[in-house]
Write a structure and sequence with these properties.
With 110 residues, the protein is mainly alpha-helical. 38% of the residues lie in helices and 7% in strands. Helix 1 crosses helix 3 and helix 2 crosses helix 3. The termini are far apart.
């Protein structure tokens, strides 16, 4: 799967009331240091929760009206702010991979 599609898949999983940074989305898709790729992935990607992606430290990077719309959408989902930044300590989301559960191999008791 191409990198932009992988980034879009990560963004699609961000739950309501949570946020991820541009860099974290790219890293979760296998491209660390690829924050700008996340921006590219969001262009023309209809149906994604674009407002749940923020800049480092919880900053809203979009200018003007778009930035105000992003903040409003996040506030409507219950995301809280301190000044102009999302409270990352409360709302950051990490797409952790589920831990593989396997049975340990040991002696069978009879």
């Amino acid at each position: 799967m191409p990198i932009l599609q992988r980034i879009r898949a990560v963004i699609a999983r961000v739950p309501r009331g949570r946020v991820i940074t541009y860099g974290e989305a790219a890293a979760a898709a296998g491209h660390p240091r690829g924050a700008r790729l996340t921006v590219r992935a969001l262009y023309g990607a209809d149906g994604l929760p674009w407002h749940r992606v923020v800049a480092a430290g919880g900053r809203i990077a979009l200018p003007g009206e778009e930035g105000r719309e992003q903040r409003l959408r996040l506030e409507m989902e219950g995301v809280s702010f301190r000044g102009g930044r999302v409270r990352m300590d409360r709302h950051a989301w990490s797409p952790r991979q589920p831990r593989k559960t396997g049975r340990s191999v040991g002696r069978r008791q009879t």
